[in-house]
Amino acid sequence: MSNREVAILLIQEGNSPKTQWPLFKSHSIIGRESDADIQIDERQVSRRHAKIVYSNNSYTIQDLGSKNGTFLNGQPVSQDPQPIRNGDEIGIALCAKVTFVAEGATAPVSVLRGREPGIKMDVAAKRVWVMGQEVNPPLSLAQYNLLELLYNNSGKVVSRDAIVSVVWSEEESDGVSEQAIDALARRLRERIGEIDKDHKYVETVRGHGFRLNLVVS
């Protein structure tokens, strides 16, 4: 399967470490556990909630006996496989929504409309724009390094240890407290909020780290 184009799931609602999940496997499990192929970290989601299967050049979805149900375009999904097509909306336990984008297709206009990266960076020049407006005065070096790390891992959770290793020098790293990391993230939020206060770009993922949400809906 690695030699073909693959479909993807776009996370529209729900807590997930990624905003896009390529369906590389012939069988992909959606669930709450970290080892799920598509992880949605919500209490209402079962550990093994639903399964997407690729076979005969098409995809199907089936519920795996979840407690709170799986829905395809608003209709309940049973444990019998049901075909899914480009643009279909999949609901997971009524707390998460994902859009299925078939291989070789682009995301439906209804998904893409108004969903543009709110932050853009010129890493070579160390310049940052929020909603098309350049951050001025520039971010401090620590703030910039934190943002660049999150930007390069957008949609993924970045651990506190990873932040310390990038933002602080090796000599300083031993004395960095969680409060110092939180304070840096707060200052970065404040600087971004000077331009766009309505969108939460830097998210705290309790017990894990931080995540950058680039997409503004």
Account of the 3D structure:
With about 220 residues, the protein is α+β, with helices and mostly antiparallel strands. It is about 20% helix and about 30% strand. The chain has five helices and 19 strands. A six-stranded antiparallel sheet has the order 2-1-11-10-7-8, with no helix packed on it. Helix 2 crosses helix 5. The longest helix is centred in the last third of the chain and has 16 residues. It is elongated and about 55 Å long. The two termini are about 35 Å apart.
DSSP summary, beta strand count: 19
> Would you tell me the overall average pLDDT?
87
Q: Structural class, from helix and strand content?
A: alpha+beta
Radius of gyration: 19 Å
User: How much strand?
Assistant: 25-35%
Shape: elongated
The residue ranges in which pLDDT falls below 50 over 5 or more consecutive positions are 109-114
**Sequence of secondary-structure elements:** EEEEEEEEEEEHEEEEHEHHHEEE
Count of individual helical segments: 5
Biggest pleated sheet: 6 strands, antiparallel
N-end to C-end Cα span: 33 Å
Helical amount among residues, as a percent range?
10-25%
- Strand ordering within the main sheet: 2-1-11-10-7-8
List the helices and strands and how they pair.
Elements: E1 8-13, E2 20-22, E3 27-31, E4 38-39, E5 50-55, E6 58-63, E7 70-72, E8 75-76, E9 82-84, E10 89-92, E11 96-101, H1 109-112, E12 116-117, E13 119-122, E14 127-130, E15 133-134, H2 141-152, E16 158-159, H3 160-167, H4 170-173, H5 178-193, E17 202-205, E18 209-212, E19 215-216
Parallel strand pairs: 3-4
Antiparallel strand pairs: 1-2, 1-11, 3-5, 5-6, 6-9, 7-8, 7-10, 10-11, 12-19, 13-14, 14-15, 16-18, 17-18
